[in-house]
Structure prediction request, 90 residues.
Amino acid sequence: MINLRCDFCNRETENDGGKRTHKAQPFSFPIFFQGKKIPINFSEDWLACEECDRLIRNNDRVGLLKRSMELANDHISVNLIIMMFWERRM
Prediction:
């Protein structure tokens, strides 16, 4: 059994057959690790857990950002990635 993770808050979530998948135009985001720039590629499919899905459907940008940052170590990157998701949402 594969443990899926929410692309927004990184919590484990179950496979819902695509009902909580949100679309955004693909993009890359560079991170720096051990002095090297590494591009992270984001596809157009973003899986959401039930709570993040509810926040997205309600257009609750602040709520989604707060939830996304709860488990994050790098709040600046998370903030930028979530902002880029909203800008590219289809």
Observations:
- The CA atoms of residues 37 and 72 lie 20 Å apart.
- The mean pLDDT is 92.
- The first strand starts at residue 4 and ends at 5.
